Amino acid sequence: MNFSNIDLRKILLLLPIFSLPLITINMQQMPRPSEWYGEPMALLASQTQVVYSWFSDEVRGTTSLYLNLINIKKENNQLKSQNAELKAQLTAMTELKLENERLSQLFAFKQKNKMDLLAAKVIGRDLSSDHSTIMIDRGSSDGIKPMQAVMTIEGAVGYVFRVEPGTARVMLITDRYSVIDGIVQRSRARGLVEGKSFDACLLKYVNKSADVVTGDLIVTSGLDGIFPKGLPIATVELVNKKPYTVTLDVELKPVVNPNKVEELFVVRNPNQVDLEENKPMTPSSLNTINAIPGSQAHTDGETQ
Predict the structure, then answer these.
(1) Running DSSP on this structure, what letter comes out for residue 274?
(2) Are 273 and 235 in contact (CB under 8 A)?
(3) N or C: which end of the chain has fewer CB within 10 A?
């Protein structure tokens, strides 16, 4: 055998290939030592699981909170809507209660009075600054005629000047074209009550020597054929005695604020009634009327 022809490089390459199965068998039979990187990897994996679990819980909590907030917002909007409806119902019930009180007082007044009164409601107001008029829900079909007096429990409001089948126009005592014959209840001094502005009147053509002082009550004289005698019109606010004039300049405040009236009466028999026969209206009696809950003067703050 010629050993010089053997290739050592081939032998060295084949030797590991043939010895690899033997080494593998031996390693399977021997106990395997734990690798050095096993514990760090296990610790890293456990911490990763902890972080993932915390993140998952936070995501679920945040999502649940968001959904709860959406539901709370919806419930809040529903509660606001219900609250608004309840407030509207309460307001309507309060208005009905006040109207019922006013109508009850009007009915009681009509029952105790000898006047032929027709109840009416205000359904419109003149928006013009030149006139102070209102529209009522009674007309010629109800027996309303021009120049009939209009009043409330407290006193004069105005008089009818235009009539339609179902409605009528009333000129308020504060209209600058309104004129009512009046007298000072205390001293019986006479004059004409004329409208001045939105909430004021004047007593004109009163003799300069007449006894008129602040606080006096002006009532209807009954001579104009429109108003019954003794119906309160206004109270004296100011008396001016100007030099070189023969009459007094008297400023008045209406007993009834005609711009706030809602229910009223139309007087159909003014010449047959004298309100001063039994119980004259005085400032003290007006205060008694004003003290009645729900009365026009009481609610409007027009106590004298």
Answers:
(1) B
(2) no
(3) N
- DSSP, res 128: -
DSSP state of 198: T
Phi (first) and psi of residue 211, to 5 degrees = -90, 95
Best CA proximity match to 219, nearest among 171, 187, 251: 187
pTM over 0.70, yes/no: no
pLDDT in tens, 37-94: 556 655 555 656 655 566 666 666 777 777 777 778 788 888 878 787 777 777 777 7
How many residues are present in the chain? 304
Q: Do residues 213 and 184 touch, judged by C-beta distance below 8 A?
A: no
Asked whether the beta carbons of 157 and 151 are under 8 A apart, the reply is yes
Written as one letter, the residue type at 274 is D
Q: What is the residue whose two structure tokens read 């009147």?
A: 201
Helix (H, G, I), strand (E, B) or coil at 189: coil
